[in-house]
Specification:
Chain A: Its main location: mitochondrion. The structure holds two protein chains of two kinds. By secondary structure, chain A is mainly alpha-helical. Chain A is built from five helices and one strand, in the order H-E-H-H-H-H. Chain A folds into two domains: about 1-40; about 55-160, no CATH class. Helix content of chain A is about 65%, strand content about 0%. The relative contact order of chain A is 0.07. The chains are: A mainly alpha, B mainly alpha.
Amino acid sequence: MVQGDHPPDDNVFRSFINAVYNTIDAPVTWMREKVVEPNQKKYPWYHKQYRRVPTIDQCYTDDVLCDYEANLQFKRDRAVDSEILNILRMRFEDCMMYETPEHLTVCKPLWERYKAAEEAWFIKYGDLGAYADAKKAYMKQKHRMIWERRNGPLSDQTK
Amino acid sequence: MVSWSGLGRSFGTSLFKNNIKTPFVIQNVNFSVGKTLNAGHGHKTMALQPSRWQYHKFKDMLHYYLMVGLIPVGAIIFYTNVFIGPAQLTPIPEGYEPKHWEYHRHPITRFIARYIHNNPQQEYEKFMHYIDEEAQKAKLRALEKEVHKKMAERHDYQAYYYRPMVNKYHRINKQTGDEMYERIGDDVKD
């Protein structure tokens, strides 16, 4: 929305299109603003905050409870990280859609940031399969570190 | 709800209706045209067609039973959305522990979470207790199995794999043997 004064819009085509749109929109908006909103009660809902529990590397091997809790925490963390990756990707895509055809230069920082995040996500959660576990991710990290010890670093993020 | 299917009925029948006023012959069948008594105004011809009564009755029953469910449910949903409305997302105030239904947005979801479902934390802790108990049982069984294996290996413990000696049958055998010897002697021919 452009701030400040601008001359009144007397574009006939735009007013016609707005009128067509408002045949559906105006009664719905009226109903919402005059009937629904005043009658609705205001009361809160919250997002659940989970406490941090010991991760899988801090559990004994035969401790099923610790394993179960670490597993659930792993799944929650993976969901959160996937959403973060999603947001970064959407930022880049919005920039691209807005800035086309100069998107390759203008949106480059967003692209770099997204690519770095994607690589980090893949290092931690990628290729674990459908039955991914906290233990499997931990073992993946162990194998990666052993491979890196023998063959040198894999990427900038794992140095 | 006869009215719902009745709306389409008069339109549908007029599509089938044959509006010829005099008797006519189709494929060697002599059709006569039914004449209705016009008390005031009415249709002048009766449609001669196979009965569509079962179809109309089916539609009536379908609409009736659908409405029996849809109208109360629709009324409840309308009431909750207009007069109660969904909740606003707020940060958790300091030192306050929200109840487990306050983590949902829509009033019907909150109702279900509050009065029908169990507290998720309770379910979590119940499950944790269950797997802990099963894990303890598994450990006991594994230990027992290990002990039996060792006993089988070493044969050194008076428990499993121990064959107790009972001399009662040895005595009976010996007694029988002695008796036979006394009777027969040691002259035994094969």
